[in-house]
Design brief:
The complex is a heterotetramer, with 2 copies of chain A (327 residues) and 2 copies of chain B (337 residues). By secondary structure, chain A is of the alpha/beta class. Chain A has 2 domains: 184 residues, 3-Layer(aba) Sandwich (Rossmann fold); 127 residues, Rossmann fold (3-Layer(aba) Sandwich), CATH 3.40.50.920. Helix content of chain A is 36%, strand content 22%. In chain A, the strands form 3 sheets. A 7-stranded mixed β-sheet of chain A has the order 3-2-4-5-7-6-12, sandwiched between helices. In chain A, strands 9-11-10-13-14 form a 5-stranded mixed β-sheet, sandwiched between helices. The longest helix of chain A is centred in the N-terminal third of the chain and has 15 residues. In chain A, 71% of the residues are buried. Chain B has a single domain, classed as Thiamin diphosphate (ThDP)-binding fold, Pyr/PP domains (Rossmann fold, 3-Layer(aba) Sandwich). In chain B, 45% of the residues lie in helices and 9% in strands. In chain B, the strands form 2 sheets. In chain B, strands 1-2-3-7-6 form a 5-stranded parallel β-sheet, sandwiched between helices. The chains are: A alpha/beta (327), B alpha/beta (337). At the A-C interface, α4, α6 and α10 of A face α4, α6 and α10 of C. Bound molecules: thiamine diphosphate (2 copies) and magnesium ion (MG) (2 copies). One thiamine diphosphate sits at the interface of chains B and C.
């Protein structure tokens, strides 16, 4: 497959452009996606190229324009809705949960909501307590939704296209710390959007993660190799439905698992993964599963405190060393 | 394609029948609720029949409808069969939402009837979105959104009004102002109690109409629909009405006194049309009886239909969470070991 | 301690009344708490007795009046805010999470938000997909909040009073299926609001639960006794912070645990509890921890489907029997 | 206790100084941001100084203030020390929020300065609640809420307006209409671009004022404050203004052209007052230089203060999540085994 090297931001944009070109029902709608070029520049240039019929700047009204997206999807369109960041998505959550996710079931299967909602997420930019949230699990909890977390450049481009092909509502999380990174973008997606992928094979311990933390896990795996610990890195990719088979397969092989998740510890998706391993791979475990999550504090502004709150590569390395000698 | 108003005797009798059909259906629902045939919350439309009947009379087949949990009347007036509606309230698979939704979630895609929303205000942006889809696809359809005056205080009302006007979308907003949101009187809910005036501050035509007069409603809605089809712009109708029964199945009605209810009942939409027809068109009691007999039969048939409906097998529990032909999802109950 | 027998609804009301009498800064605010008497009748009669200065009917605007509550708490009051049901709380979630829970931290500890938010929750009344949610974990995930789940009549009364004594925002979940049940109300609270309580001693398996499911667990424990299985029932009571010591103590004793939680399985608090046991009591386990949660479907209207979706006593009994012979 | 307007030379010079203090502080912040001394998002108030200065001049010590992420000017004008503000942006413990908040979350309880809110519209209900607390406790204080015109489209704006008027609470709403919400021009955001007119539809006095004229703002705010203190009712001021810089640190400003910016800059609040003073009051350049020298010193002192501030130790990471003396909570990072 031929490849391109792009930034994550460009890969996202390439996905949106391909969708706009391929399907006339697709449009992009959200705050500042047009004239401004997107709060993080993802949609820069699209308004000029595709016009205001396809690139729609909305007023500040998250519940309103997400609800409009749900209605437009019901009416036969294929909207891509950008909620600037997950931090503002609480304002739209009722429409996402009680409408988008639920309409199909409430109507006895008569209608469906082919809607894609994109949100920037994550911490690391010193944006403090109201602008650094990792709330993937809020959405992963909801039957009727699918939730994606593209961590690679190929996924950044292609998951959007896969999501648009899905007849049901899909939420996509784009970690802000990835935007400026460069990477290969394959011409096609590697696999269905609902599958987890082993990004690094290993035999001693499974590092299970997604999104912005994948790269920390991969760095840790490199360091661990030097310490003679063979870490397998599993990229969950799809947070709902979870690819439990892949999780169980990895842990069955390595007998040890560490979950890295940028959410606050309590009530995070990491807990869910740990519970799944408990239920489906308990007898294969040589040590208790560990979680490395964000410390339970609203993200503080100063860099040293922010970084201290987030899971870090060194912690993964230490945790892996400890788990190898556990009990 | 302007909508024509008919005010001849035959037409008005037909409108009367539509209202009576809702009235008697709702009364029967109350009975069936007491018998525990219908469960959950039950919100009756008694007293407000003129609104649904008047507005629906002015719509085309491809126009979309978005309603609330108080939507039996809208569904009946739109043309969903009484059978499928009642079966839905019985929770049977022959219900209009296959029994999954119940009283608050009546759906019929073939009739462009998009529910049945139990979140106050939740349907407003949805309706704007449906209208956007129509406009983008250059379909000659409009979307009607019914909601109570209680929804006007919600932020989503504001957001939806602004978007509909800003983007010039073909929506007909119908505010059913029945004076109370559960037990909260309008004056406790809105700093500006003239809802139409409030709506007009967004820059759209907004009109108050007597919600107890089916002819007035049809006339106002007809004008609105014509204007929307011509201009593709939204339009707002505030229908001043009253609900004769409690908010839902659980309501002691401590918040209003009986005299007030009685006053409104005396000018109810059914009694008013009957009186008018009697005064002006020699309507005879036996004509009413014969209409009511027909309705009674229809209701009886609906009950039979509903009672004969099947319960969906428990093995299908997770059906319709996702569309078919998409890979399976986590739906087990956690007993995986 | 002298006792009273009250319905759960009456016990809630008794707590509110005591708070209104004891502290002049307390008031109750929410949709239909006054003239209507509360959507589930909890505050019936209070408007007449305490006046509209203390019992405030709000318009329908969840974000607005919850935010007003936050501001009033900042300004020195002690508001009790009733969000009719958790189902509507998404509309207020931004104010709860980004303001109430976060203001103290963002201000460097200068301000605090002594607010109590009450919400009805849970399924069982055939209220269908938009009115039957169990979202305790959404709030249990948030640093800065405390989250309570009174399952007994004593807790229904006293937890409110304890919550009002707390300087930080507290969310209280009141399960709708409990409202009409009658039970003893002790004159004082049994223990701090942050402690879990063993409601039934046992040695073979821990049934860990909270809120509406406690009574199912207690029934199951009774049946299990006849089957010669000694089940311990742990009532979590406080969902944030979790009383992990009590969880670990129980599992360390019984070596087996089943978590019963009315939330949908994926991403539920049950996963968190399972993960905590994994991390802190793994070597004590004789069998993998099980979760009994709600099937992942928006709650269907018909009773037989609704009941099939929810965790049931028989399932607990079966799960306990299975766990005794696990491996 | 009516607020008196002073328009003498000394007073106006003092007002000029307050505006220049904000102006130069913000300019220095931009520099310090480029040097990476300040991080995160940085929203500058350049061009809008007259609003904060004019309004704050009319308040009492116990009045509450609620602002947005663009609040440096408000904090300075309210009386927070420049030192504590800059130290906050440096993330040091001698910052006004102990370094936890940064640029978007300046707080000072002693000055009744309640932040610094980075959720657009999020401060509106908060302000209404503070006003409710004041009214309930019969304190003679009012609450001022600053927000941008972009917030007007949010549902929370609507909900807050309605509650403030419905319950007659002493809030002064100050809409800083700088014509853009990030890159979204007012006409793309509101169906009704006259914000004061929109606010008046809730039933409160709402007035437009020239946001570039500090005297006009003070006069309008003074009138508003008097009326609020007299009636305990809310009041709305729309200040027509413009932001001269980008929305935040990341902004290519593709959405407006330089000519437009220049036009507004020419009638900026600082230049306007200087011109007026020169024309009418023989203001001399050396007076300005001496003011600017003082400000420069203050800024230099603030930088020194900020740079000397301490970094909070990582061991205190979970401080101030909960109030002290309450039992401990789960704050570990999951490495419990
Ligand atoms: C967001 C939300 N808040 C609260 C409720 C509970 N509730 C259901 S109906 C209702 C009153 C609505 O009144 P109105 O909009 O006037 O409609 P009506 O019932 O009078 O037809 C309330 C408060 C809800 N369903 N959704
Ligand atoms: C609820 C919410 N949505 C989006 C954002 C992102 N955002 C931050 S400031 C801003 C523009 C606000 O414009 P306005 O209210 O006019 O204030 P200004 O920045 O012009 O002072 C946006 C969209 C946010 N912080 N909060
Ligand atoms: Mg009503
Ligand atoms: Mg602005």
């Amino acid at each position: 497959m031929s490849e391109q090297v792009l930034t994550y931001r460009e890969a996202l944009r390439a996905g949106i452009e391909q969708a706009l070109i391929d399907d006339d029902r697709v449009f992009l709608m959200g705050e500042d996606v047009g004239c401004y070029g997107g709060c993080y520049g993802v949609s820069k240039g699209l308004l000029e190229r595709y016009g205001e019929h396809k690139i729609i700047d909305t007023p500040l009204c998250e519940s309103g324009f997400v609800g409009v997206g749900v209605g437009a999807a019901l009416g036969g369109m294929r909207p891509i809705i950008e909620v600037m960041t997950v931090n503002f998505s609480l304002l739209a959550m009722d429409q996402i949960v009680n409408s988008a996710a639920t309409l199909r079931h409430m109507s006895g299967g008569q209608v469906n909501v082919p809607l894609v909602i994109r949100m920037a997420c994550g911490a690391g930019l010193q944006l403090a307590a109201q602008h650094s949230h990792s709330w993937e699990n809020f959405y992963a909890h909801i039957p009727g939704l699918k939730v994606l977390s593209p961590a690679t450049h190929t996924d950044a481009k292609h998951m959007l296209i896969q999501a648009l092909a899905d007849p049901d509502p899909v939420v996509i999380f784009e970690h802000v710390m990835l935007l400026n990174t460069r990477g290969d973008v394959l011409e096609n997606s590697e696999v269905s959007m609902e599958k987890a992928l082993v990004r690094q094979q290993g035999t001693d311990v499974s590092l299970i993660t997604y999104g912005g933390s994948l790269h920390k896990a991969l760095s840790a795996a490199k360091q661990l190799k030097k310490l003679n610990i063979s870490a397998e890195v599993l990229d969950l990719r799809c947070l709902r439905p979870l690819d439990t088979k892949a999780i169980v397969a990895s842990v069955t092989k390595t007998h040890r698992a560490i979950i890295i998740d940028e959410a606050w510890l309590t009530g995070s998706l990491a807990g869910e993964i740990s519970a799944i391993i408990m239920e489906q791979a308990f007898w294969h475990l040589d040590a208790p599963v560990k979680r490395l999550c964000t410390v339970e504090v609203p993200i503080p502004y100063p860099s040293h405190l922010e970084q201290a709150a987030l899971p870090q590569v060194e912690q993964i390395v230490t945790a892996a060393q400890n788990i190898m000698v556990a009990r | 394609m302007k909508h024509k108003l008919h005010l001849d005797r035959t037409y008005l009798l037909a409108q009367l029948k539509k209202m009576l059909r809702i009235r008697h259906f709702e009364e029967k629902c109350a009975e069936l609720y007491a018998q525990e045939k219908i469960r959950g919350f039950l919100h009756l439309y008694i007293g407000e029949e003129a609104i649904a009947v008047g507005v629906m009379s002015t719509l085309c087949a491809k126009d979309n409808i978005v309603a609330t949990y108080r939507e039996h009347g809208h569904a009946l007036a739109r043309g969903l069969s009484m059978k499928s509606i009642l079966a839905e309230m019985y929770g049977r698979t022959n219900g209009c939402s296959r029994g999954r939704g119940g009283s608050m979630h009546l759906f019929d895609k073939s009739q462009h009837f998009y529910g049945g929303n139990a979140i106050v205000g939740g349907g407003l942006p949805l309706a704007v979105g449906l209208a956007m889809a129509n406009k983008k696809q250059e379909q000659q359809a409009l979307t009607v959104c019914f909601f109570g005056e209680g929804a006007v205080a919600e932020g989503e009302f504001h957001e939806a009004m602004n978007l509909a006007v800003l983007w010039q979308l073909p929506v007909l907003f119908i505010c059913e102002n029945n004076r109370y949101a559960m037990g909260t009187a309008l004056a406790l809910s809105e700093s500006e109690t003239n809802i139409a005036k409030k709506a007009s501050s967004y820059g759209m035509t907004a009109v108050q109409v007597d919600g107890m007069n089916v002819v007035d409603i049809e006339a106002a809605s007809s004008k609105a629909v014509d204007q929307i089809r011509e201009t593709n712009k939204p339009y707002f109708l505030e229908c001043q009405s009253y609900r004769f029964r409690g908010h839902s199945s659980f309501d002691g009605q401590l918040y209003r006194d009986k005299a007030e209810v009685k006053l409104w009942q005396e000018q109810g939409p059914v009694i008013r049309l009957i009186t008018w027809l009697k005064d002006n068109n020699r309507l005879e009691d036996k004509e009413i009886s014969s209409i009511e007999a027909e309705i009674k039969d229809e209701i009886q048939a609906a009950i039979t239909f509903a009672e004969q409906g099947e319960w969906e097998p428990i093995s299908d529990l997770t059906k319709d969470v996702y569309s078919p032909a998409v890979s399976s999802t986590n739906t087990s109950q956690g007993e995986q070991s």
